[in-house]
Design a protein that fits this description.
This protein is an alpha/beta fold and 327 residues long. It has helices spanning 55-63, 66-70, 75-81, 86-103, 107-110, 131-140, 156-166, 182-194, 247-250, 253-265, 279-285, and strands spanning 2-19, 22-36, 39-45, 120-121, 124-126, 146-150, 171-175, 197-201, 221-223, 242-245, 269-272, 294-295, 313-314, 317-318. The chain folds into two domains: 2-104, Enolase-like, N-terminal domain (Enolase-like, domain 1), CATH 3.30.390.10; 120-318, Alpha-Beta Barrel (TIM Barrel). The two termini are 21 Å apart.
Length: 327
Amino acid sequence: MRSLSVHKETWPVRGVFAISRGSRTEVEVVVAEIVDGDHRGRGEGHPYRRYEETWDGVAAELENLSAKVNGGLEVDELQEVLPAGAARNALDCALWDLRAKREGLPAWKLAGIREAPAPVLSAFTISVDRPEAMAEKAREHAGQPLLKIKLAGKGDLERMRAVRSAAPGARLIVDANEAWTEDLYREFVPDMAAMGVEMIEQPLPAGSDAVLRHLDRPVPLGADESCHDRSSLPGLAGLYDFVNIKLDKTGGLTEALLLAEEARERGFRIMVGCMLGTSLAMAPALLLGGMAEFVDLDGPLLLAKDREHGLRFDRGVVMPPDRRLWG
């Protein structure tokens, strides 16, 4: 007989992680765990304040579904009973994991993916700080092939010049987390292009980004806060080149796979990203790695510790998950 349990967990960050909206020294996650006989499936969600989610609220959403889950709820029905977000992500991924364990097949085969996930290059994130501090962090991680630089608006060119000087051989993508204005965009982007920046993620606030249609785009743009699930796609045409698919936004692997397929059909390029979290949160997203030009699943590297059987990273390359972790 099935049994759902919900766990609220706190994981310490390695140092301080900062973006334009604030900083944190720990991350709060919610884990959905389903036990069915000898089999166990798990999924992890990160409640995100930007989307009006709370730790207690996400846990309560899951606990309220205990009877349905214990009665045999599967991923198709789940899409109808929970909205996209961290709660559905945790439960959706737990159901995928449980099915993989129960049927003795890897999740990628169950998802209809043609080939097993291969090792993929993941960006390593440098959080926003003073230019000197960001340069020091970039120098420390200059051996990483791809750096993702968090930015915050005023002073970003100084930050980027410091990073580029400290890590001249690294590929760079940047993430403004909605912190720029149209004027800052016009000021920053030519220099970003000259520095070799390969993609700028969410420069303007979601809902205030229609002006991007009329701005020069010498660096490709990626939609993060502006893209949640398939319903987001029609409004992104002509504004963005990439969509950043995060399972906490899509509400799990089920919608993420459908979003990736439709986004490519509409001509968008794919990035796979993450919230802060453990390897349990990253593992399902790796099923999308083969579809993506940019992968940003370095969450475990930003934590002070990780789960048992966590993902392995080698100079920026992340290996497919151990089935004891997920899938």
